[in-house]
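Subject: Re: docking follow-up (flavin-adenine dinucleotide)

Dear J.,

Thanks for your patience while I sorted out the input files. As discussed at Tuesday's group meeting, I've set up the holo structure prediction with flavin-adenine dinucleotide included as the bound ligand rather than trying to dock it afterwards. The sequence and the ligand SMILES I used are pasted below, so you can double-check that they match what you have on your end before we go further.
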Amino acid sequence: MTGQIDYSQYERGRYCNYWDLDRTLQRELRRVSPDEEFEWAEPRLADFGEVVGHTIADNADYVDRHGPELDTYDRNGNVHNYVEYPAELHETERLAYESGIVADSFQTPPGRKTPLSHSHYFGMLYLLAYAETSGFVCPVAMTAGAAHVLELFDDGSLAEYYEALTSREYEHLIEGAMFLTEKQGGSDVGANETRAEYDDEAGYWRLTGEKWFCSNIDAEGTLALARTPDAPDGTAGLSMFLVPHGDPDEGVLTRGRRESFDGPPPGEALNDQYYRRLKEKLGTTNVPTGEVEFDGTKAHLVGEKGQGFKQMAEMLNLERLSNAASACGIMARAVLESKIHATNRVAFGRPIEEFPLMRADLVDMAVDHEAATAFTFEAIRHFTARERGRRTETEEESVERSYRLMRLLAPVAKLRTARMAIETTSYAMEIRGGDGYVDDFVTSRLLRDAQVLPIWEGTENILALDVLRALDREAAGEPFTAEIQEFLDSVDHPALTGTVETVESEFHSLVGAMAALAEADEEYAQLSAKRLAHYIFDVFTGALLLAEAQEQLDNGDARLALVARRFVERELADSEARGITDGDRFAIEFFEPIVHFEPIALEAVLDENDGE
Ligand SMILES: Cc1cc2nc3c(=O)[nH]c(=O)nc-3n(C[C@H](O)[C@H](O)[C@H](O)COP(=O)(O)OP(=O)(O)OC[C@H]3O[C@@H](n4cnc5c(N)ncnc54)[C@H](O)[C@@H]3O)c2cc1C
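The structure tokens for the complex came back this morning:
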């Protein structure tokens, strides 16, 4: 689909194809994927966009009101940890996994010679987030994360679990989960107290302790951290274990095996643990989050003893980027709902999108979504390059540089997009007016579900500290500044000159700030870490959007030049009297190309501030 989009043909952001309508995702996924892969995958993305826009969107709303329930005891008082899911959620699971959302990036899909890159998984997850926001998106992300960890660290002894985590057939599928948080430590994972002891007779490790936040509680491929006897304190003493829901003596408890029982699986088919309760949450109803007590629970060691935290860090890189991709998908849905409503709703005799303030609102929501998605997919590009390098055993320096850069970009992507998703969904609710606050409309769920994004997988403060760590330990500043310079060097179109100058000046200041913090005492560095993370996002995104805008201009499309200009003006330029008196009517002049994708002539984007 090209040309202008008429949003008034829709009644709401439903019963449409999210892939076809999302030109931002199309552009970014094409940019970060090898051409051959993108061409091959595009029809699958389009099919998935259709399914998410119809059945999965309907199911998500239903499950939000009829979420999973826990039945800890059977009718005879025996523990059976049974989580009852509505049929609609099972249907969504089947549709998503059989579309290859996880499988295609880990196992060779039929018709190909190799698996797709990880970027494909992130694109599919983004599409799923249009409807499943952070609910069922969470189990999918943890399934991919657990597969990623086993691919990297398992010596083959857990191959059955890996095959099931990456299965594209529902009957053979299991899902992943990660149990880190204990009462005394979510951010402070080194405070974990759960113990692991080897049981010679049984031939398993046995875990004892309590996990306080366990999403996808009954997953068969749960990864948990625990401390082996005589292990040192802190993160260095943690090992990683795979803790199945079923009794591992009985084999892997796949979806097919679960369904083969008449009713809930009997106690003897299950591992020894106790699901105390599910949490009553603000949102993310579509995933059961509970508290688990391990009591001699059977577990398999994953990778090396004492390497649990390091291994979990690899999973966290993927989870944080998944969080960012789903934040972008949620923003995309919120922007879509807002555009549709604003074209159809009449107030004071006119569609509300015609009012100047609403034009500015919609332009800025669209620009935020573009900025968040561009940054996130650039981080994903580097994650993918590193993983592709590992899979092909390429020892090029570029792979190492991608890793260092990804270590910086992933926490920043998660931190900023989570905040932007909350702002965008909150404003989408307001654009819907009073109805937006009512559960009959999706906007209330979008905001409730977005609110978890800054909390799990590392809060904003913890991520800001991770940014300092990436700069210090991975020396990520060097590839970071080199990449910004590359972006800026690629831009020479006169329509971008003024914007480039602003970014260059802020880039210079950012480099100074990074150098100053590297020399500062720890207390001061921590005090400034969050501001630094946001500054990194703004400057990097400004330069990236400019480089992308240059490419689009070369192809005769000026829209992204406008997006870059608006983003940089808003986030990086100095303005007098907060811009109130500068006479700028950008949001009115360029509303149609930015919000409705109306084609725009190159001359129209040259203004008096641009180069001669
Ligand atoms: C819906 C939901 C599902 C979840 N699912 C899972 C799951 O499946 N698995 C799992 O392991 N966990 C899960 N969590 C837990 C989540 O990851 C933690 O709650 C989160 O990491 C914060 O940990 P905490 O709750 O212990 O808060 P704390 O660590 O006590 O943090 C409290 C506050 O202190 C701040 N803080 C802490 N340390 C510092 C510091 N050094 N400097 C500055 N500020 C600091 C934090 O930013 C935060 O604002 C889930 C949480 C929610 C809400």
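A couple of observations from a first look. The pocket of flavin-adenine dinucleotide is lined by residues 178-181, 185-188, 213-215, 281, 284, 289, 452, 455-456, 459, 461-462 (CB under 6 Å). The mean pLDDT is 96.

Let me know if you'd like me to rerun anything.

Best regards,
T.
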